[in-house]
Every structure is written in C-alpha cells, then in structure tokens.
Write a structure and sequence with these properties.
Layout: H1 18-32, H2 38-45, E1 61-64, E2 68-72, H3 73-85, E3 95-98, H4 109-119, H5 121-134, E4 137-139, H6 146-153, E5 160-163, E6 177-180, H7 183-190, E7 195-198, E8 201-208, H8 217-228, E9 236-241, H9 250-258, E10 267-269, H10 274-282, H11 286-295, E11 310-315, E12 322-324, E13 332-334, H12 338-345, E14 351-357, H13 364-378, E15 387-391, H14 395-404, H15 406-412, E16 415-417, E17 440-444, E18 460-464, H16 467-476, E19 488-489, E20 495-496, E21 518-519, E22 553-561, H17 568-571, H18 584-587, E23 606-607, E24 614-615, H19 617-626, E25 631-635, H20 647-654, E26 657-662, H21 667-675, E27 679-683, H22 688-691, E28 697-701, E29 712-717, E30 724-729, H23 734-742, H24 745-754
Parallel strand pairs: 2-3, 2-5, 3-4, 5-6, 8-9, 8-11, 9-10, 14-15, 14-17, 15-16, 17-18, 22-25, 25-26, 26-27
Antiparallel strand pairs: 1-7, 4-21, 12-13, 19-20, 22-28, 23-24, 27-30, 28-29, 29-30
Helix pairs in contact: 1-2, 3-5, 3-7, 8-9, 10-11, 13-15, 13-16, 20-21, 23-24
The structure holds FE3-S4 cluster (F3S).
Protein name: Aconitate hydratase, mitochondrial
Domain Aconitase A/isopropylmalate dehydratase small subunit swivel: 558-684
Family: Belongs to the aconitase/IPM isomerase family.
C-alpha cells in the first residue's frame, strides 16, 4: 500500500492509494496536455494502463481498476454464483453485499423484517455464507439501503466504485465516482479483470447563490431533470461546480447525485469540500478527511480552465421548490405552479399517501427538516391528513432519530415507520388503502415514479419531491397546496401558515449505530460452506459451460428469427421472473418469450425444426439441447438494447445456443454474450437477414482461424434450393477469443487460476 490510511473502518486490508493515483494522473496529463475536470481525474487515475490507454471523451473505451464493488441482494445472487464458478478462493477487490430489496412494507418495521427473513431465508443464507466464504462484507436484512450504507461507511473522495444498482451514483455526494453496472461487470472486477467503460462526456452543472426557505438540494436535481429530460445525461458524467456547491451538506449532495440516474447519466459527482470533511468526521473517518486535504488541489478538484462538453447553470437564489411527476421524474413543476398544472391535466388533487426516506432522502438533515414542519403543525393541533410512511435509509439513521426524538414525532403525526429497506420505492408495498385501478395521488421523497413502480397500480399518480414538501402535502392533503403562500386551519378553525423547514446537517450528539447487522468475513474461511439447497427453486449453483470443440459448426437449426426491436426485456423479461435471478434453469424459461417470430408475427411460438411442432421458445431450445443439437438465433438491428442484464446472455448459453447472428448488437449485450462463450456475429451484408428463412440450416465456417478483424463465412442451406454463402463480421479481440475457446470468460479465469 502507498499509505497507511484505511479506506474505511471495517476492512483492515484496504488502503487509500492517492499517491499511486496521482502518479497515474501525471502520466495522463503529460499525454493529454490540457486541464482536466474532477470526474476525468478520478477516471484516469484508475486506468489499468495510463501510458497506453487511448483517451477521447465519448469515443474510447477505458479499461479501469475500481477500488470497490457494492451489490444489492437482488443482483448479488447471480453475480456471486458466477464468481463462484471462476474457482477463486476470494474476491480480488473489496466487495460488500446489502440486503435491502426483498423486504415488503406491510405492518411496520419489525414485523415486516421478520416476515422477509423467513420468506427469503434461502437467499439470505446463500448470500451470508457465500460472502463469508469469498471474503465479502455482508450487510444483512434490516441494516439499511445499499447507497446509504456506502455513504456512511465506504465512500471517500477520489475513489472509483461500481455497484450493481442504478442509484450507485449516490456516493458522488462524498466526492466518489460511483457507477451502476450489471452483474457481469461486477464479476470481472471481483475476479481481477479490468472494467471497461466508454469514456464519458462531461456535463458541467454550475451552481451559484444559496438556497433558502422551502428549497432544498432535492430541488436542484428536480429542476435539472426538467431541463435535461430522462435521456439528457446518457453517456455523460454530471460534474457540479461553482460557488453554490459549498453552501449545503454532503448528504444533500448525495441526494442530487443519486437522482442523476433519472437523467440517464453515467454518474454524478461533487468536488471535495468542507461539507465532506464534516460528514467524514461525523462518521468516524476524520483520518480520511485529513488525508484528502493533502490531495485537494492536485487530485480532488477540477483544474482551472477545464472544459465541459456542455454547461448548465442553476441559480440557487431563485430556485423554487419543485415536485416532479406523475409517471416520469423529468416532468418538473414548481410547487407554486402545481395548482394550475394539476387541474389542467386532471391529476387527482387529493393526496392519499406521503412517503419519506429511501436511498434518496433519508439523511439526518432530511429527517430533522421534515420533523420541524410536523412540530410546527402540531403546535397548531394539526396532524397528517394522509397516510404517512418513513423508510429510514439505514439502521444508523433509524437509531439516531429514535434517540433524538424525530421518530417519535413522525409516529405522533400518524406515521408508520417501515423497515430500513427499499420497501415502497421498489414496489415492495402491500398497499391497502385503495383498490387496484383506483385513480389516486401519492407524494414521496423517492427518486423514481414510473407507472406502477410503487404499488403496482397503473392509476397511481406518483410524484417525487423533497421530504419537507412531502410532509407539507401530508398536512394539507392537497396537491394544490403551496406552503409558501397558502394558509391552513388549526384545530379551532383559525388560519395559520407553516414556517419554512429548519434542520441540522449532522446529529449534534453524534450518530447512534444502532443494532449491529454487519457480518465481516471470518479470518479463516476455509471451513465455510456455501448454503444452496439442491431442491431450491430460487437458487442453483452454476456448472461450467462446455469448451468449444475446436471445429466449425454445421447444419445448425434456427431457434427463432426475431423481427424488429429485441431488447433485453424481450430476451429475459423482468417482473415475476425477478425471483428466479439466482436460478439459471428456472429463469431460462423466459428466454426470448417477448421476441416476435419473423415467421408468424407471434411471440413465444416457434416451430421445432425436427418435429415440426409449434411450442414456446424456451421449450424448443431445451429440446434441441437435450438432443445434443446446438442452435442459432437470427436478429435485427441493435439486438439486446436496454439493460446490462447478464441473464440475457446466460440463458441462451444454458439452453445450448451457439451463435447469435444479427444486423447489429447493443454493445453491452454483445460483450455479455462473448463472456458466456456464445458467438455474437454480424451480417456484413445486412440484406442477408431478409433472405434467411426460419426453416434454413446454418454452417459457420472459419472458426479454427478465428482472429481479430477476420470475417467468418455463413453457409445457408434452404429447405429446398441451393446453398448460399454470406460473410459474417465480429468484434472479438485476442483475449475474448480465448473466452470463446474455453467456453466462457469464467472458464478462462478458472483455468488461469488453476495454473
Ligand atoms: Fe432501493 Fe429505491 Fe434506492 S429501490 S436502492 S430505495 S431507488
């Protein structure tokens, strides 16, 4: 290690490496010869090869070495199962797993937690034992939400982290570059491979002035979402700068970075500043703060004169409180305008439920500001008109507000305190106050509000705003209410106005850690055995895929020629299939069931090449596999667009697929296919797609000389008529060709590990 400063208080083997990172940065600066933004500095300081890496924003693919990986429980299952099949004794990079997504809100914290522990026992047991085995920190159910725990314990300025959850960027509030990825990327980093990212563009957001009144950090990102829309940040990092940056708390910056995911940004980040020092001190990490100060100028801030691809300015002096929604987080409305907008759009103005907390907004500051409004209302004898729930982001937050009285204030107000978990934010909500299909409005301090997300009811109009505004709406019970101008009536019918919120950024008496829910990996891990029941329908150990037989492939049937858009949702649907994320055999029953068969225009209805019988895609594929026959899929443009879901590549491999041949691929899916040992190939002549009939048989020729940049040949045997040939291109590099030969990237890793 190049310093004795630990990255956190929980791991004794990981140290901050500012010195090495600064050396890397100097190499890159010498080559680029221009001032760098803060986000660029963190990225380039983590390059695998700072000397040779090509760097052009928006063009090059960077090979990076992240400092750590964080996984939530829904995505961790397949990531760990895959890591296990690499045959390594422990993860190569610090990793933590967080149990937060599988806890349903019903009765309130303790009862809901107990129910979740029994319902998800086998998943939790698997995660706890596999974490212990492979040297991974395990945060059990009840510990809190991944991003809050990362902020409180692991994030620090200048670090690079990946996480298997889209709101990983939350840690940008502590000056860390934190990026949400799919499980396959996490596995690479766990297994010591560099992680690849297209060099992002950088959007600079300049903050000037200072907020006051009802305006809070949440309003910065609500406003920004309105400016950029949900797509505006795609392929870019949002970097904040300007005087306004130093006027609010570190957790407020976390909220802003968290919701950067809603504009599609790769991540968001704030430069190191005094609020981060305060937060590090308050969370017992003063040593890190002192160390960071030494590197502030050279590493932990943007260079003077650096250039952004785009600059957006927000004046905090004039920024109004906002409320965004319904159905999309970029539909931004100032609270003062909501009255007219709601009526014009016929949105239900009766607010039914107010929900605060979640990974976005459950800091001590959020809780104290929300509580200040409630106390003010209580002094007039007024309580919540709506239902009201609180989802604490972590056990530390829950215990601290329990000790300091805010929790009691929420309960007196009529609130229900839920488990420290995602709960209603991810639809884990047994909502009873309305029937499915009832048109209604809810207001939350969460980040996402897509149709049906919170309660599965497409008629629920879900709005997102700051926690203090949620409380104001809960008191008024009306979406048209504006606390800055409108009066309320007290218990005696006298009019009064709510005072603007006030709160404290950090608990004056320090944080109370609450119950200890962290399981550190044991020193001696050799005796730990990983718990997977052979009869489980939710978890299944992975068996290594067979290596390539060293020959060209002949007379392969076409499982399906898919027509038009084929996204990862068509390839591997979500919804009810989520519970099988840790069971490859079961989840493979959704393979391509959403794709349209070019032969008949139907979904999940394909002809078996040998029996002539029409059946679902997964059943037909399994039949081929069981007969020892490999198959191909023919696809259209941008095949596999959508999420980075690795199941979309694992499933066809599990079902015996050999090649996926398309007009073009979405890049992440293409890489995922390569990783699983399938051949993603492209028509050089795109008109060949039209010529192929689903009944044809396919030869793939030239595999014995597979080399970067060298085309293969596809020979097509129509049922009746002459065979014809067409060239196929691919994007394999030399290392990826090894993945194909070994049968998968993990097989290759396992072999390297054995030797
Ligand atoms: Fe959980 Fe919602 Fe955050 S699902 S991680 S609380 S965005």
């Amino acid at each position: 290690p190049d310093s004795k400063v630990h990255m956190n208080l929980l791991e004794d083997h990981s140290f901050i490496q500012y010195k090495k990172q600064l050396e890397n940065l100097k190499v890159v600066k010498g080559r680029l010869n221009r001032p760098l933004t803060y986000a660029e500095k963190i990225l380039y300081a983590h390059l695998d090869d700072p000397h040779g890496q090509e760097i052009e924003r928006g063009v090059s693919y960077l090979k990076l070495r992240p400092d750590r990986v964080a996984c939530q429980d829904a995505t961790a299952q397949m990531a760990i199962l895959q890591f296990m099949s690499a045959g390594m004794p422990s993860v190569a990079t610090p990793v933590t797993v967080h149990c937060d997504h599988l806890i349903q809100a019903q009765k309130g914290g303790p009862a809901d937690l107990a129910r979740a522990i029994s319902l998800n026992k086998e998943v939790y047991d698997f995660l706890a034992t596999s974490c212990a085995k492979y040297n991974i920190g395990f945060w059990g159910p009840g510990s809190g939400i991944i991003h809050q725990i990362v902020l409180e314990n692991y994030a620090f300025p200048g670090a690079l982290m990946i996480g298997t959850d889209s709101h990983t960027p939350n840690a940008g509030g502590l000056g860390q570059l934190a990026i949400g990825v799919g499980g396959a990327d996490a596995v690479d980093v766990m297994a010591n491979l560099p992680w690849e990212l297209k060099a992002p563009k950088i959007i600079g957001v300049k903050l000037t002035g200072k907020m006051s009144g009802w305006t809070s950090p949440k309003d910065i990102i609500l406003k920004l979402a309105g400016i950029t829309t949900v797509k505006g940040g795609t392929g870019a990092i949002v970097e904040y700068f300007g005087d306004g940056v130093d006027t609010f708390s570190c957790t407020g910056m976390g909220t802003i970075c968290n919701m950067g995911a809603e504009i599609g940004a790769t991540t968001s980040v704030f430069p190191f500043n005094h609020s981060m020092v305060d937060f590090l001190n308050a969370t017992g990490r003063g040593e890190i703060a002192d160390f960071a100060k030494l590197y502030q100028k050279e590493y932990l801030s943007a260079d003077k004169g650096c250039e952004y691809d785009q600059v957006i300015e927000i004046d905090l002096n004039t920024l109004e409180p906002h409320i965004n929604g319904p159905f999309t987080p970029d539909l931004a409305t100032p609270v003062s305008k909501m009255k007219d907008v709601a009526i014009a759009n016929d949105w239900p103005v009766d607010v039914r439920v107010g929900l605060i907390g979640s990974c976005t907004n459950s800091s001590y500051e959020d809780m104290t500001r929300a509580a200040s409004i409630i106390e003010d209302a209580a002094s007039h004898g007024v309580k919540a008109k709506t239902l009201f729930t609180v989802s604490p982001g972590s056990e530390q937050i829950r215990a601290t507000i329990a000790r300091d009285g805010q929790l009691h204030i929420f309960e007196e107000f009529g609130g229900k305190v839920l488990a420290n978990a995602c709960g209603p934010c991810i639809g884990q909500w047994d909502r009873q106050d309305i029937k499915k299909g009832d048109k209604n409005t809810i207001v939350s301090s969460f980040n996402r509000n897509f149709t049906s997300r919170n309660d599965g009811n497409p008629q629920t109009h879900s709005f997102v705003t700051s926690p203090e505004m949620v409380v104001a709406y809960a008191i008024a019970g009306d979406l048209r209410f504006n606390p800055a101008t409108d009066k309320l009536k007290d218990a005696n019918g006298n009019e009064f106005m709510l005072k603007p919120p006030h709160g404290v950024g950090l608990p004056p008496r320090g944080y109370d850690k609450g119950e200890n829910t962290y399981q550190a990996p044991p020193k001696d891990r050799s005796q730990v055995s990983v718990a997977v029941s052979p009869t489980s329908d939710r978890l299944q150990l992975l068996k290594p895929f067979k290596p390539w037989d060293g020959k060209d492939a002949f007379k392969l049937p076409i499982l399906i020629k898919s027509l038009g858009k084929t996204t990862t949702d068509h390839i591997s649907m979500a919804g009810p299939w989520l519970k099988y994320r840790g069971h490859l055999q079961n989840i493979s029953n959704n393979y391509m069931i959403g794709a349209i068969n070019a032969e008949n225009g139907k979904a999940n209805y394909v002809k078996n090449h040998y029996t002539g019988e029409y059946k679902g895609v997964p059943a037909t594929a399994a039949d081929y596999r069981d007969k020892g026959i490999r198959w191909v899929v023919i696809g259209d443009e941008n095949f596999g667009e959508g999420s980075s879901r690795e199941h979309a590549a694992l499933e066809p491999r599990y079902l015996g697929g050999f090649a996926i041949i398309t007009k073009s691929f979405a890049r992440i899916h293409e890489t995922n296919l390569k990783k699983q040992g399938l051949l993603p190939l492209n028509f050089v002549d795109k008109s060949a797609y039209e010529k192929i009939n689903p009944d044809d048989e396919i030869d793939i020729i030239g595999l014995t000389e597979l080399a970067p940049g060298k085309n293969l040949t596809m020979r097509v045997h129509p049922k009746n008529g002459e065979a014809w040939e067409t060239p196929l291109s691919h994007t394999y590099n030399a290392q990826q060709i090894e993945w194909f030969k070994y049968g998968s990237a993990l097989n290759k890793m396992a072999a390297a590990h054995k030797s």
